[in-house]
Amino acid sequence: MSNSEIKIQFFIYNIGDYHVARIQSLIDKFHGSVNQIQIIEIFSKSKFYQHTQNRREDLLNKYPDIITFFDIQTNQAEPSPTKILYHIVSNLFRYRPNLVITLGYDTFLSNLLLILSKIIGAKIILLSESKQDDLPRSKFKESLKKLIVSLYNAALVGGERHINYIASLGIPRNLILKGYDVVDNKYFFDKSEIAQKNIPELRLKYNLPENYILCVSRLVKRKNLTTLLNVFAKLNSSTYKLVIIGYGPEKDNLLKQCTELNICDKVMFIENVSNQDIYIYYTLASFFVLLSFSEQWGLSVNESLACGTPVIVSRSCGCVDEIVIDGYNGYVVDPYEINDIERAFISLIDSPSKRKYFSNNSRSVISKYGPSLFADNIEALSKQIMQITS
């Protein structure tokens, strides 16, 4: 059976800009024909990301056959589960895919698609970035979860830790591959090259300091931003500033902490940076930091590396085993050890040659973890579970 005999329905709650390259690569893999793969988003907007998704709009204009069930306006309530159910069921039975792809295993959408796929005889691939150490696990809940997850035919996940966890929930290890958590590396490569040629102008236009440490993160407790501020304050640097891009419920507490640490003049909080401009902040930064206590992956690390920016990343982040090589393109640190984190900061601040070394290595590492891996491994799993030969 060839790729033309695979009839895929790919379901997602909302297409964000960071999904675009994955979806494009999947369409390209199946000969660029949307007749062989139907992309369906449930909602036109995300509850978590408020900024404009320009690349999403470009994708929808390029492929008008992509389906959006509900065009949700800002602050508008979501449709009832009954309405969502009706749209999914009617579309699934009309299209009759032989392969369904969905995100997560613990949502209304994923559970519904799992049941319906079994009814129509379609195979189903799970996309997941869950890992064992994301949160405390109970034996009872894990037993229930195993009953559900083991019904999926295959899974595409983030990395090795994610493979281990999903395998523990009942999907055979040989039917779990990496490549879910990827970004459009080429986009960031190309944009950062342009930015490198215009650094003085961009610093002036975006009011960015000469030397700064960057963190792109939601302002929530698990992101460990209090430790980031504490470490930055201990550095007592007269030449470096800290730029934090993101929004969330912890902002007031973080501003209060800056006042207590007497670093308000050295820390910039920026809420709204468009996806079209974010590469500028990565490219001009001296290095990037993500110190999360818990992080399923950390796509901002991918983006930073694709811009050639060194990283300091918590070992709790799911991405570190795949795209951060300690001492080669960044540092992996213990999020609970302030001294460990401080040493990494000082190493990069004091050594431009170390930053250059990490920068030169960053793109060679991340280039192996891009959208083509996502599509290639979806294809590989499809062939395995549908017994397709080349």
Helix and strand pattern: EHEHEHEHEHEHEHHEHEHEHEHEHEHHH
Kindly report the oligomeric state of this protein. Answer: single chain
Say how many strands there are.
13
Mean pLDDT: 93
Largest sheet: 7 strands, parallel
Shape: globular
Describe the structure.
- By secondary structure, the chain is α/β, with parallel strands linked by helices.
- It is built from 16 helices and 13 strands.
- The strands form two sheets. It has a seven-stranded parallel sheet, with helices on both faces. A six-stranded parallel sheet has the order 10-9-8-11-12-13, sandwiched between helices.
- Helix 10 links the parallel strand 9 and strand 10.
- Helix 1 runs parallel beside helix 2.
- The chain starts with 7 loop residues before the first strand and ends in a 5-residue tail after the last helix.
- 41% of the residues are buried.
- The mean pLDDT is 93.
